[in-house]
Amino acid sequence: MSKKKPLSQGQRRRMRANQEKRLQRRADENQAPELQDSSLGPELLGTVISRFGQHADVETEAGELVRCNIRRNIQSLVTGDKVIARLALEQSSTIAGVIEAVHPRHSSLSRPDLYDGIKIIAANIDQILIVSSVVPSFTTQIIDRYLVAAEDTGISPVIILNKVDLITDEEAASIDAALARYQAIGYSVYRVSSKTGEGVEQIQGLLNDKVSVFVGQSGVGKSSLINALMPDAELIIGDVSENSGLGQHTTTTAKLLHFPSGGDLIDSPGVREFALWHLPAERVGWCFVEFRDYLGTCKFRDCKHKTDPGCAITQAFNAGEISEDRYNNYHRIIDSLDEQRHARHFRSEDD
Ligand SMILES: Nc1nc2c(ncn2[C@@H]2O[C@H](COP(=O)(O)OP(=O)(O)OP(=O)(O)O)[C@@H](O)[C@H]2O)c(=O)[nH]1
Ligand SMILES: [Mg+2]
Ligand SMILES: [Zn+2]
């Protein structure tokens, strides 16, 4: 196997820009005939199941799945969006309709991306299932980042540890301790194995009548878990690379599936890092739920909750009321906000 030299940021950016141009050109070519009003039927209500560039698969209220073009005036369209669509009266290509408008969202989960700005992962969701596992690696840092995002949007989170069949005796104690810390601050934690089926039934009970999005690092087994919950889903699952130990980014676009006993599941592509620089530092502090009682009681209003004198958060940490792991992860997030904002700033000046 040949080792490729990693691309520089500039190279990646140029590749990406070219790719986007190509995609846009293709979309423009594709769009022509379907957009004429006379060839379209009446307005229908639908749900976006998946989005692919300039197209989206929409499920109509009648349960029909149609691939649609997206009107150019639509700024943002993601899985879970409720839309108004019109179907082509005569189907001349694989594109069977047009999305005309998007209904307001009651919720959305988003993350900032260095290249694309704020990226919305899915819309109209009721519950975020944060999936983690020992393979590729168990890390509370990414769990805490997702918890912050969930608290910020007000969508209730649940923590799921998948692949419990792979936990070694050496790892067990520290993982149990980490999960117990989350339970102590009020989060629900579930342990499952999509391979052996252990714990899967308990997850089933969480999903009825809700729209749940599965998020987490690539390779933790989000798609595998959905397959275990819904054998008909037949989602493609990937390998965890033996070289890098990381997931292969198998799922490339979010997809909505209907759960047999009511409720919807959204599988989402794994991330390597979940950035939060769209949030002000103060908001991040508020999103650490166990900090809330102390916020506003520090001596200085602009307290960084670190070495500042009279810091109520640091006092609570020293008194053992805030865990070291959460305290450290909070500061990691705060430090990264500055770095990532700087990187983005640097990038836009550079363009
Ligand atoms: N041993 C074991 N392996 C599992 C389990 N669940 C998933 N895997 C394996 O983990 C690998 C990754 O699974 P995926 O379901 O593709 O992971 P994902 O989170 O959807 O990854 P992305 O789509 O890249 O975000 C596959 O090789 C699965 O077979 C489990 O409970 N136990
Ligand atoms: Mg997947
Ligand atoms: Zn403070």
- Total beta strand runs: 13
Biggest sheet overview? 6 strands, mixed
Cα radius of gyration in angstroms: 22 Å
Taken together, the total number of domains comes to 3
Q: Structural class of the helices, strands and pairings?
A: alpha/beta
CATH second-level architecture of the largest domain: 3-Layer(aba) Sandwich
Q: What is the first-to-last residue Cα distance? A: 35 Å
- Helix share, percent: 25-40%
Tell me the number of helical segments per DSSP (H or I, 4 or more residues long): 8
State mean pLDDT (0 to 100 scale).
88
Query: Which spans have pLDDT < 50 for at least 5 consecutive residues?
Result: none
Task: Note the run of SSEs as H and E.
Answer: HEEEEEEEEHEHEHEHEEHHH
Bound molecules: guanosine-5'-triphosphate, magnesium ion, zinc ion
CATH third-tier fold name of the largest domain: Rossmann fold
Cα shape: globular
The top level CATH class name of the largest domain: Alpha Beta
